[in-house]
TrEMBL record:
Gene3D superfamilies: D-Amino Acid Oxidase, subunit A, domain 2, FAD/NAD(P)-binding domain
Name of this chain's protein: FAD dependent oxidoreductase domain-containing protein
Domain of life: Bacteria
Stretches of the chain forming a coiled coil according to its record: none
Residue span, FAD dependent oxidoreductase domain: 9-365
Keyword Transcription attributed: no
Organism annotation: Ciceribacter selenitireducens ATCC BAA-1503
Organism phylogeny: Bacteria, Pseudomonadati, Pseudomonadota, Alphaproteobacteria, Hyphomicrobiales
């Protein structure tokens, strides 16, 4: 076990998780090499929505971690690092059917139980508070204290503040082991070998091959849309809208199965006056492409809930690929069997929210301190023996 802070570290992957890990390591004076097969925020982090949200989390360890994640964004915004890059706003979870109302009532009780400020809105209150919503909306829960951040902007802030330059186009291909296979002596890359006291794998979907976890980590595609600016409509929305169906879509889809395409609506009014609208959950189709079926279904759902969007032009569509874990929880902690190897991945649709707090927590773990988030449910040892490192 790593007993005292290391003097050097390699972080593999410069998405939000790797960038945050590198930032918190560098803050302690630990020499960092942050390497990426491509470029900073080139994968999921650069193709995400950016809900920094407790509202969307399942009760339990994810909700508890998200509370810490949102709090850290607030702290980093207040201390200047993320000022202007973290937009504070509420999330309104909206139910349009009896099934969604039932899910929403249970979810609202779970959020309140976790200490989140929630407010139920229905009938006239709902119409007054949210005139942009269609009469289809039966009830809503306002979840206070949430926010939004653009993943690649956060990566940029973290790297700039720590002066870390990502070593681009450097793909890690495997580990060199020592001490009877208990320690990583170095890593091999397409551009030679590197050594450091500790290695952290934050390689998103690339982590599966490195850890031999292909049955445990699964790519999950998502398609999103961005509209033109519509300042009046934007100003009429006090926060993001999340359909009750989003909770159903997120909670019901276990990685490794091949369900039909899941669709859970989120409409986010951006600071630019535009709307970011998403999205799908697809366990088939690993490519970052859009298709007309998904685009038209997202738009149809969005206009049904916010009729004013019918007059707003669609500017572009894009897609990204999340990394899902078969049991729905991320992998954060020591790589099973390795004393100085760590992994932080598998955040599915929650890595923008959880990236910074995960980076901070894994660095605390590496340095022998109590992590800010309880990592016990995320411990990769739950899959020990089921993968073989590259
Ligand atoms: C459509 C969509 C919507 C989303 N919406 C939200 C949201 O609203 N809120 C939220 O919190 N999260 C959201 N997410 C999830 C979030 O984007 C991810 O959980 C998060 O970005 C994961 O970050 P990461 O650093 O783990 O991985 P990534 O961003 O995927 O980064 C991994 C990096 O590792 C590099 N890499 C891979 N293999 C290797 C290798 N062998 N050697 C070297 N480098 C390697 C890659 O090039 C990449 O840069 C969304 C995701 C998608 C796709």
């Amino acid at each position: 076990m790593q007993s005292r802070p290391p003097s050097s570290a390699i972080v593999v992957g410069s998405g939000i998780v790797g960038a945050a890990t590198a930032y918190f390591l560098a803050k302690r004076g630990i020499a960092i090499r942050l390497i990426d097969a491509s470029a900073p925020a080139a994968e999921a982090t650069g193709a995400a929505d950016g809900a920094v949200s407790v509202a969307s989390k399942r009760p339990g360890p994810m909700m508890a971690a998200a509370l810490k994640g949102v709090a850290l964004y607030g702290e980093l915004a207040d201390n200047g690092l993320l000022s202007g890059a973290f937009k504070r706003r509420s999330t309104f979870i909206v139910a349009a059917s009896d099934e969604e109302c039932a899910v929403l009532e249970a979810h609202s009780a779970a959020l309140a139980g976790a200490g989140v400020r929630v407010e139920m809105l229905s009938g006239t209150d709902l119409r007054q508070d949210f005139p942009a919503l269609s009469p289809q909306a039966k009830m809503a829960v306002e979840v206070h204290g949430e926010g939004h951040a653009i993943g690649y902007q956060i990566v940029h802030r973290l790297l700039t503040a720590s002066g870390i330059v990502v070593e681009r186009d450097m793909r890690v291909e495997g580990f060199q082991l020592e001490d009877g296979g208990r320690r990583i002596a170095g890593i091999t890359t397409n551009r030679g070998s590197l050594t450091a006291d500790v290695v952290v794998i934050a390689a998103g979907n690339g982590s599966a091959k490195l850890l031999g976890f292909s049955g445990i980590l699964t790519p999950r595609k998502g398609q999103l849309l961005v509209t033109e600016r519509a300042p009046e409509l934007n100003a009429a929305m006090r926060g993001a809208i999340m359909s009750g169906r989003y909770l159903l879509s997120k909670g019901s889809q276990k990685a490794g199965h091949t369900p039909p395409r899941g669709l859970g609506l989120v409409i986010d009014p951006l600071v630019t006056g535009q709307f970011l609208i998403g999205g799908t959950r697809e366990d088939f189709g690993k490519r970052e492409t859009n298709d007309i079926d998904a685009v038209s279904r997202i738009l149809t759902d969005a206009v049904a809930l916010v009729p004013g969007l019918a007059g707003v032009r669609l500017l572009r569509s894009f897609a990204g690929v999340r990394t899902a874990v078969v049991d729905g929880l991320p992998l954060v902690g020591r790589i099973p069997g390795l004393e100085n190897g760590y992994v932080a991945t598998g955040f599915e649709g929650d890595g923008i929210c959880l990236g910074p707090v995960t980076g901070k927590s894994i660095v605390q773990l590496i340095c022998g301190e109590e992590p800010d988030i309880d990592l016990s449910s995320f411990d990769p040892s739950r899959f020990a023996g089921q993968g073989e490192a590259a």
